[in-house]
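User: Is it possible to get a 3D structure for a protein together with its bound compound? The compound here is zinc ion. I've pasted both below.
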Amino acid sequence: MDLRKLLRAPTGAKSGNRLRILRTVMIKPGNQTEVYKRSNLSSATVSEAVKELEQSGHLTVEQVGRDKFVRLTPTTGVAVGVELGFQETVVVARLAHQDRNEAVTRSLPIGVAGGESNWLARVVEGIQQIVYSFGADAGGLATLGIGVPRMIRPRTGEFARPLLPPWEDGTDPAQAIAGRLAAVDPPVVPRDMPFPDVLVDNEANLGALAERAYVHPDKEMLLYVKASTGVGGGICAGGVVYRGGSGVAGEIGHVKVDRNGPFCLCGGRGCLETLIGSDALVRHARAVYGGQTARIRDLEHLIEKARRGNALCVRILREAGTLLGQTLGNICNILNPDVIVLGGTLSTAQDLVLGPCWEAIESTALGAAYGNGLRLEASAIEYASAHGALLMGLDGTTYD
Ligand SMILES: [Zn+2]
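Assistant: Yes, that's possible. Here is the predicted structure of the complex:
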């Protein structure tokens, strides 16, 4: 069976429901009761459709205790997700019937900060290689999702205005990747098959999507914060990423935390990103070392030094955790999340950041907003945004 055939546009309500269930199981196989919850369909609809899809050979159903475990039968067509970071790009790929832990990952030491003339060819090559690695029998590229830094307008897939660096007028990373990828030889899509639409969203939104699908399927309100070079956030409410009217929802990095703080590239002042983005943290540390770059190479190096007990680095991370927590505490009063997942490089500092962050949430948010089981944790998914991009492709790609 080929993934492209499964993702054909539905012709009626019944085929629409079947497609909904297939997509739900592609995202993650699971017990039928869980599939029913995640698909937002009625239990009777799911049970009838699962039976039909089993009979038609699309799903395998295995009795486990009183429940049934549902998974997709082996499928051709590679699903790819790309996380275009400022400094690093990550490509993940799997077949639709495979689990997340079977996905292949490729990390490229190049990001969008280097400009399109530098990253585009390398990223396309990375996608090519990962698709080829599945072999000719795997059916080539079938879905492709891209996560990018900065805000994306819902529905149109364009950058929200004003454009923030490194993006410029007329840049369209999804189209640029599609254009070049469609021309590679040997082709990534068999010549008799259509090239998939390339879907794009903000990387933190996709991180939220992956965390909800893979780790917290039962959480009503999930907030994902990615803190690396930039600081972004994604909100997943009832399993759906909430993007807001023009794609700005979740932009925690541009919440003002210091009215006299540094100017930000968004045009604001004292934004959280200007104070806890990796450039700022590294700059703070270097200031103490008289600007010597060798003493603190980057945020990873700063975190490593803090782990080894360097008091300056510990302090910088603690203060970053506190500022982040104060901001999150205010957001808790508005969104009332069940779980806040911290991703990005800053999250690898674990308790050095999470400890002070939690204390600041407690001293900022309403008791009811954190006292009823709110969880704060570091992301357990390596490259959550890349996995979210892959899921967006599986969930949103349709073939005529
Ligand atoms: Zn800003």
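The radius of gyration is 22 Å. The first strand starts at residue 30 and ends at 31.
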